[in-house]
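User: What would this chain look like folded?
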Amino acid sequence: EIIDDRTGITHLLNNIGLIHWHKAAFQKAQDHFNKSLAVAMKIGYQNVVSTVLGNLGLIYNEMTKYNTALDYFQKAFKISEEIGNRANMAINLHNMGLCYSNDYDLKNAMKYYLQSLNIFRKIGNKFGIAFTLNNIGMLYYEKSEHKKSLGCLNKAEKIAVRADLGEIIIRCRMLKAQIWRVQRKYAKSSGSLLKTIAFAKKIKMAGLMNDAIAQYVKTASEENNRSRLPNLAGYVAFLADNYKRMTADYEKCFILLALIRYDMAENKFAAAETKFTEFSRLIKRAGDKKLFVESLLIRARLNRAPVKEYRSLAEKGKKMARELGVITLLKEMESM
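Assistant: Here's the prediction, encoded as structure tokens.
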């Protein structure tokens, strides 16, 4: 401010906003993004205007205010298109796809991911290509089209390995392990996850390591021979301890889901019930539809008696899964 470097101020405010966003301090992030936007608009710095509008969209996406998020992404895309910033165009198309995916509009999610992927390929953005292929793989997974999903994930992982994109490598391997879990290839899934946990630890990606551990515990909970799995009890204790330090509701839900399933597999139903009460409270606040369906699945399994209530919960969950188009979860509920 002393030297009146207003372009620098816009970047600084935006970067502070990103720090708060990564800490899930969304109001503070929003405040800094809005300050950055105001300065950028005043001096006509359109590249930053586009970037900050997109960042505000990400905040609203995290808050599950999807229509508002889409409005910001569309404004950001329009400015990027006007100034010829193809990288930002692709990013905002990708974020529109992400927003539709989070709201379980899988058709529109695919539409925008493919548009984004086309631009990323034209400009040679390896991260964008790999990340978008990973997310398309997720859409195919939700639709239970596992062969197509694995095809996208293998392509994404290959690009990520060549470009040394650790985050994408981990995400691809976790989703592939998830597919193998659903296919009941438990040894393949848990073995892959153990390697992924070690890799995430090696490259110091604590958040993704935590996610991989939660997924490993969830997968282990479905295995009959859990005693063969290395360090399972240690990972369960790690998650329980780590949960206390979590701030984001969605991250807490992901950990609780794994711990609840583990307690149920170990016939610790009282402990599972206690965690489920907290899980139910968090998903209401998080507003995630798929997590709500999963909560019905857990509630049905915890309340197998009376049979009438169990069937009612299961049918409600299956109906919602069909409406959302999450066929993989629907098949899991139909097998109950």
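The chain has a mean pLDDT of 89. If you want, I can go into more detail on any region.
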